[in-house]
């Protein structure tokens, strides 16, 4: 069995470290790497014949949680394991909510990483013991989300942009569909985040849906 993998991380040194761990196993093949969420979406448009993505969380342009949500919207067959140095409750909760299939820390050794990949592809959920404990705690005491209906006023163009984002499209694709520049799209998104009081696309889309904006 040849397992096709993509690695997404904004640190080239850490990408090489992960590639080295994977190189010990003949059944794993790294098809491509990407430096942020937007880049992995662009590469998947060219080739989405990927079995699993190892996804960092903290990245510029588009972080791993946003990217996970968008990848799962467009390519639900692809498994995603968050591979990160962060094990705080909010990241774990948001990653799982976005559709992550597993959550491992970068300090993991090669053998455990290989086992986690196989476990995830077989329908399991690869997690470090410390992450598993935090996940159980989150399930017992879920983070309560606000259900408020706020008075939020977006322009018609901002609503158009949000609707495009909810389909899992990249900034470039949204720009093409709306006949606008990527810079203009980014400016609209900044305004949307400010008005909705959110920090990423996943939160923006969810809040817009809760408030019947889209």
Protein described:
With 214 residues, this protein is an alpha/beta fold. The chain contains 10 helices and 5 strands. The chain has a 5-stranded parallel β-sheet with strand order 2-1-3-4-5, with helices on both faces. The longest helix is centred in the C-terminal third of the chain and has 15 residues, at 182-196. It is globular, with a radius of gyration of 18 Å.
Write the layout of secondary structure elements.
Blueprint: E1 3-8, H1 12-22, E2 28-34, H2 37-46, E3 52-55, H3 64-74, E4 79-84, H4 89-98, E5 102-105, H5 110-121, H6 129-140, H7 156-165, H8 171-178, H9 182-196, H10 201-210
Parallel strand pairs: 1-2, 1-3, 3-4, 4-5
Helix pairs in contact: 1-5, 2-3, 3-4, 7-8, 7-9, 8-9, 9-10
């Amino acid at each position: 069995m040849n397992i096709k993998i993509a690695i997404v991380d904004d640190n080239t040194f850490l990408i090489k470290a992960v590639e080295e761990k994977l190189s010990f196993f003949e059944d794993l093949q790294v098809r491509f790497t990407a430096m942020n969420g937007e880049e992995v979406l662009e590469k998947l448009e060219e080739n989405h014949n990927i079995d699993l993505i190892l996804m960092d969380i903290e990245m510029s342009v588009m972080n791993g949680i946003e990217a996970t949500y968008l990848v799962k919207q467009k390519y639900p067959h692809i498994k995603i394991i968050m591979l990160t140095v962060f094990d705080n409750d909010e990241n774990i909760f948001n990653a799982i909510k976005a559709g992550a299939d597993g959550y491992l820390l970068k300090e993991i050794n090669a053998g455990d990483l290989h086992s986690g990949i196989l476990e995830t592809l077989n329908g399991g959920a690869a997690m470090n013991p410390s992450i598993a404990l935090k996940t159980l705690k989150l399930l017992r005491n879920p983070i309560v989300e606000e259900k408020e209906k706020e008075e939020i006023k977006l322009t018609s163009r901002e609503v158009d942009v949000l609707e495009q984002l909810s389909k899992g499209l990249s900034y470039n694709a949204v720009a093409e569909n709306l006949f606008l520049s990527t810079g203009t799209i980014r400016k609209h998104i900044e305004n949307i985040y400010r008005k909705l009081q959110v920090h990423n696309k996943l939160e923006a889309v969810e809040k817009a849906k809760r408030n019947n904006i889209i």
